[in-house]
Amino acid sequence: MTVQPRPAILSIDPYVGGESKIPGVNRIIKLSSNEGAFGPPPAAIEAITRAAREAHRYPDGNARALREAIGARFGLDPARIICGNGSDELITLLCTAYAGEGTEVIMSAYGFMMYDISGRASGAQVLKVPEVPAEGGGMKADIDGILATAGARTRIVFLTNPNNPTGTLLPSSEVARLRAGLRDDILLVLDSAYAEYVTAPGYDPGEALVDAAGNTIMLRTFSKIFGLGGMRVGWGYATPAIIDALNRVRGPFNVASASQAAAVAALAEPGWVETCVAHNTAWRGRVAAALAAAGHAVWPSETNFLLVDFGSPEGAGQADARLKSRGLIVRGMAGYGLPGCLRITIGTAEECQMVIDAIGAASPAHG
Ligand SMILES: *Cc1c(COP(=O)(O)O)cnc(C)c1O
């Protein structure tokens, strides 16, 4: 007899990442994983090179310099920050610490796949709450539905805002209403991976809610606007009790030294976020307009990607084939239950123009 994992483990569908190769195509443009458009910040590349010479040393297990740099940048107490091997690790640690056998974890139907994977791995049952139409198009998390689903066994509610893969933003007042309606012994995980890209006024990535309400953790990442997905650095801001619980279950050296150095340097890169946001806002608008002019339904987005609805799996397949023939790889959404949609990351100006040429209308005036 072979060794068997716990039954819950075999109920997990393994995570399928964005594709990165097309057979027979040399120049690949990867717009499938929402990575930053401009590569790593130059200062981060230098920091990684420098850190290589100290690679025989264990990292600072408390990520002190990084937590202090994050605290200074965002005006937060470093003692209430935890760093992880990507925010993915923090999601797993949260499920280990707060969920487990006999409990329930709640997420939105079109929420991030890692909540499902980590929740199940812990032994919890993962409940997916159907979404409701958003103003301006697309779908959004149903706050009333989540509140109605939360029961005696619920331990964690995961919410991404703005959401991946839909791109839609919930008003911060709605997120606060969710927190207020949940029992105090239910942890709200507010995943703000795309916070920097938001241009809508009045957005709270989570700091204010953590401070006001407790029992809440905000998750952030260096994988998107800071261009360091390959270095695996994420962080969380929460109450001291939550940070303490996570510190007990994490590995002692969970963030590599080169990764810590890269993240500190990325925060110090002058003008990086401002430049990336200005580029993203401009090109997100241009790509959305050109695709809408070609008759495709583009969901409103406050992120660095667009969810585009082609009306049917066949329509999405045809668009995907046209993109692929030009070397453009985007993300199919069948795994998320949206088989008529494709998710397209906002890349460089040239890459965005290639998307427009492949599946957009040249300009609304000529459409
Ligand atoms: C990209 C993304 C993350 C970031 O994960 P890392 O492990 O930090 O790379 C987290 N949550 C959501 C919703 C994301 O889209």
If you consult CATH, what is the topology of the largest domain?
A: Aspartate Aminotransferase, domain 2
The distinct ligands, each listed once, are:
pyridoxal-5'-phosphate
Total number of strands: 15
CATH homologous superfamily heading of the largest domain: Type I PLP-dependent aspartate aminotransferase-like (Major domain)
User: SSE string, helix = H, strand = E?
Assistant: EHHEHEHEEEHEHEHEEHHHEEHEEEH
Number of domains: 2
Residues in β-strands, percent: 15-25%
Unreliably modeled segments: none
Shape: globular
The total of helices stands at: 12
Description:
Homodimer. Its cofactor is pyridoxal 5'-phosphate. The protein has 367 residues and is of the alpha/beta class. It has 2 domains: 7-30 and 272-360, Aspartate Aminotransferase, domain 1 (Alpha-Beta Complex), CATH 3.90.1150; 42-268, 3-Layer(aba) Sandwich (Aspartate Aminotransferase, domain 2). The chain is built from 12 helices and 15 strands. It has a 7-stranded mixed sheet, sandwiched between helices. It has a 4-stranded antiparallel sheet with strand order 11-12-15-14, covered by helices on one side. The longest helix has 22 residues, at 272-293. The radius of gyration is 20 Å and the shape is globular. It binds pyridoxal-5'-phosphate (PLP).
